[in-house]
Amino acid sequence: MASERVPRWKRRAYNIATVRDESRRALPRPVFDFVDGGAGDEHTLRRNVSAFDDVDLYPRPIGGTRERDLSTTLLGRRLSMPLIVPPTGLAGLLWPDGEAASARAATRAGSIYCLSHGSVCSLEELAETGIEPLWFQTYIYKDRGLTHEMAARAAAAGYEALIVTVDTQLLGNRERDIRNGFVIPPTMSAREVANMATKLRWLFRMRGTIPKITFGNYRRTDGGEDLTALAQRMVGLPDPGIQWRDIADLRAIWKGQLLLKGILHPADAIEAVANGVDGMFVSNHGGRQLDGVAGAVDALPAVAEAVAGRAALILDGGIRRGAHIVKALALGADCCSIGRPQFWGLSAAGEAGVAHVFDIFRRELDLTMGLCGLPDIASIGSDVLARDSTSTDTARLTAATEAVAAAAVAVAESGSAANNGDGAGAEERVEPVPEVGGPAGPEPTRYGDWERKGRAIDF
Ligand SMILES: Cc1cc2nc3c(=O)[nH]c(=O)nc-3n(C[C@H](O)[C@H](O)[C@H](O)COP(=O)(O)O)c2cc1C
Fold first, then answer.
1. Are 162 and 256 in contact (CB under 8 A)?
2. Cβ-based burial of 206 (10 A; exposed 0-12, middle 13-18, buried ≥19)
3. Among this protein's residues, is 117 annotated catalytic?
4. Residue 188 CA, ligand 1 centroid: distance in Å
């Protein structure tokens, strides 16, 4: 029997960098840059990836297993590997029904897809596809009624987790989009419009869809706004004056899992736990918001130490290799997420492209674990990063630990979230601030409490 022919795009796309090449080939430049770009000089965008180069693996290949078990549990859900899709808006601009295509690929890969507030389809439309579990991302809006309405809609449609993104209350300075005129209202030059026309496959595929592209969750029932008017209205909705009591208020009405996205500072991680959050994305929005911010994985150890297992941690930003997943887990994450890699796969080949991205990560993660002698996810601990105490990495993490201690003291002194005004009902959710190096507590360690990973500290 003749073996199945592997499509050309797939043969060329043998790792995430080459999937990105396929995406560049497929998309008009303004759309590719919208996906690929970051804020300002893109320092943080680059740092998200390069930070992984500062963390070295120290394999112990003797004692490994013939087969590895990559499965794990995140917030009560079994995943085939510790990798999910974070919210990424406008998927439907890359591929017809892009949100459903990505969500199908992710859930068939044993993962989770988080629908963005800025999706083309509405949250109800995605729910109708029968995909599960359902996760939805929203904001704290100036109109708190809208925040609560989004939560109520998500609950009614069967969503299990609500993600509140806290780092995009103001839109970042996306200079590629400015250059390309991919802004609101659009200011595309004739050259850019002509460039759109050179991507014939994308144009052909999207021919029936482009006129219908909208922001499904904000669309008015009378259809009385065009896309530009709708986008203009949306940009002004999130509230830059967000407070912790807003999170407490949402916690009080949202019965499912509540996660914050955009946490980098250990003091905020402590506040988040105190406000009853179930998990957080350690994230700088993929370098798309504030340039000059630390890489996501730079921020992870201090956040992990502050949280100490009391909430799920998703490392979001810069994951391009299976080895990055191992490093993130060794530094305290429970799971990782892939924004652009998923979008590159989607634009290259729709659902099959996203499935391929998951396959690449699965293969690379399995290989890394196999070569490190790691039989399963629970065995990934800090000892796989064991290194010379004079290294800059250790110095960086020592500084991070000191930041946690300072943050814990600051939060304790400020009386924590339960006392921040009218946080009615927050009292019973407040958890004690972790003792970091206090008199009765354990000796502070450079890498924090790794006990939950089932491995001793051996630095
Ligand atoms: C095109 C694009 C759209 C995005 N839209 C959203 C969004 O609507 N809401 C959100 O919280 N994050 C959004 N993000 C950020 C991602 O959720 C994630 O934080 C980021 O992509 C992680 O970095 P990575 O691309 O290196 O994996 C978007 C990212 C991209 C690339």
1. yes
2. buried
3. no
4. 23
Residue 84 host element (H or E) = strand 83-84
Please state the pTM of the whole predicted model. Answer: 0.87
Neighbouring C-beta atoms of residue 49, cutoff 10 Å? 18
Reduced to 3 states (helix: H, G, I; strand: E, B; else coil), residue 72 is strand
What DSSP character marks residue 46? H
pLDDT tens sequence across 41-86: 999 999 999 999 999 999 999 989 999 999 999 999 999 999 999 9
- For residue 133, cis peptide bond before it (omega within 30 degrees of 0): yes
Give the residue whose CA is nearest to atom 15 of ligand 1: 285
Q: Are 384 and 431 in contact (CB under 8 A)?
A: no
Residue type present at position 214: T
* E strand segments, 295-356: 312-316, 335-337
Q: Look at residues 40, 103, 56 and name the one whose alpha carbon lies nearest to residue 330.
A: 56
Residue 114 CA, ligand 1 centroid: distance in Å? 11
First to last CA, the chain: 55
